[in-house]
Amino acid sequence: MKVVVVTSDVPFVTGGHRIIAEALVSQLNAYGHDAILWCTPQNRFGRQFSAYLANYFTDLGETGSGDKIDAVISLRYPSYAVKHYFHICWLNHRAREYYDLWEQFKSKISFANKIKESIRRTAIHWIDRYFLKNNVKKLYAQSINIQKRLQKWGKIKSEVLYPPAIPRNYCFKEYGDFIFVPARLHPLKRISLGIDALAKMKNTNISMIIVGEGPEYNNLIALIKECNLEKRVQLLGWVAEDTLLDLYARCLAVFYGPLNEDYGLVTLEAFSSRKALITCQDSGGTNELLEHGKSGFLVNSEPDHIALAFDAVSDKLIAEKQGNYAYSKSAEFSWEKTIATLLQLKTSNE
Asked: Could you please report the per-residue DSSP string of 264-306?
C-alpha cells in the first residue's frame, strides 16, 4: 500500500510530531508498505490561514509517476486539511495557543491584539472543527488528554491510539547515580522544577543530566548557579542518538514534568530502558501510562514533592523494581499493532 504520512512543520525546530511521523514512515516500510513523509507549511502567527489553504490545495492523489496513493495519515494542524479520499488523522495537537494555552497566550499581548487574535481564534476553531469532522475518514487521538481537548473544544469524537516508543536500540546498563532529563529547553517543559527538586533532596549524592536545546538555556544555567548545583547538574545541549540511549541505559530514573503535555514520548522511552519515570499530576499525556508507585512516581508539581520522589527512587531496589515493571508495560505497545489499527478501515474494504 502506498501511504503518505503528512505533518506540518516549521524550519529549524524538530518537535515530537516530526519524530513520530518519521518513525511511522520507517515502520510502515518495515511492515511491507511503501511510505514517505510529506511536510506541509504551518506558518508563523498571523499567516495561519494561508497555511490551511496550502494544505487544502496539496494534491496527494497520485505519485509523480502517476501511481495511485492509497492512504494519507496526518498528524497535526493544519496537515489534516490535506484532501484525500482515504485520509486518517492521528492527531498530535491543534494550535495550542488558541485552545488550552489561550489564557496564557492572551495575557502576553496588547488589547488590540487580543481583539484580533480572538477573531482569529474563533475562525480557527471553526476551520479545525470542519476539517476534523468532514475531511478525515477516521480520527485517532495520541492520548486521552488530546481526546479530551477535542471534545471540550468542538465536541469532536475520536479514539485513543498511543504511539509506541520510537524504534531505537534501547537497552539497560545500570541504575546509576543521576536523574536523566531529556527535554527541549522550553518553559512548558518545566525543567526548572527538576533542578529545584534536586536542590531539596536529602540524598546529595544524586546528580542530574539534562539534554536538549531551546530558549530556556540561559535561565537554567542561572538557576543551577543560584542553587549551588554546578557540581551536580550537567546541561549537555543536543546529543547524538547513541549518547541519548546510553544516558537512558545508565541513569537512575527519568524526570519529565511538562505542563499539560499532548502525549510525551519520554514515558515509553524511559520504560523501554527499564527506568522509572517521575512526572507531575498536571503533565497531561505524559502521566497516562504511568502507574504511581509501580512504574514511577506521579506527584504534585512542586519541588518539595518531586524531591521526595527523587529520594525514594534513589533507593536502587525501588529503582530496579519500578524499572522492571515499567519495562513490562512498554511491551504492550508495538508499531505492528499501531499500523494495523491506523489502516484497518482500508484493509477491511479491500
From this structure: -THHHHHHHTT--EEEETT-BGGGTT--BTTTEEEE-SSHHHH
Contact status, residue 168 vs residue 286, Cβ threshold 8 Å: no
User: Which one, of 21, 308, 262, lies nearest residue 144 by Cα?
Assistant: 262
166-177: string of b/e by CB count within 10 Å (b at 16+)? beeebebeebbe
- Does residue 81 contact residue 52 with C-beta atoms inside 8 Å? yes
The alpha carbon of 20 is separated from its chain's Cα centroid by a whole number of angstroms, namely: 8
Please name the helix (run of DSSP H) or strand (run of DSSP E) that holds residue 15, with its range, or none: none
pTM over 0.85: yes
Residue 212 neighbours by CB distance under 10 Å: 21
Q: Which residues does the chain have with pLDDT short of 70? A: 346-350
Same-fold call for 2-164+334-348 versus 178-330: yes
For the chain, list the strands marked E by DSSP. 2-9, 34-41, 71-76, 87-93, 138-141, 159-160, 178-182, 207-211, 233-235, 253-255, 277-280, 296-299
pLDDT at 16: 79
CATH number of 178-330: 3.40.50.2000
Cell of residue 118, nine digits? 480572538
Q: How high is the pLDDT of residue 299? A: 97
Q: Is the peptide bond before 78 cis (omega within 30 degrees of 0)?
A: yes
Are residues 210 and 232 in contact, defined by beta-carbon separation less than 8 angstroms? no
What Cα–Cα distance (Å) separates residue 30 from each residue in 25, 171, 310?
Answer: 9, 21, 39
What single DSSP character describes residue 248? H
Spatial contact of 207 and 180, defined as CB atoms under 8 Å apart: no
CATH number for domain 2-164+334-348, candidates 3.30.420.40, 3.40.50.2000, 3.40.50.300, 3.30.70.260: 3.40.50.2000
User: Which pLDDT value is given to residue 350?
Assistant: 59
Q: What's the confidence (pLDDT) of residue 45?
A: 75
CB distance 141 to 20 below 8 Å: no
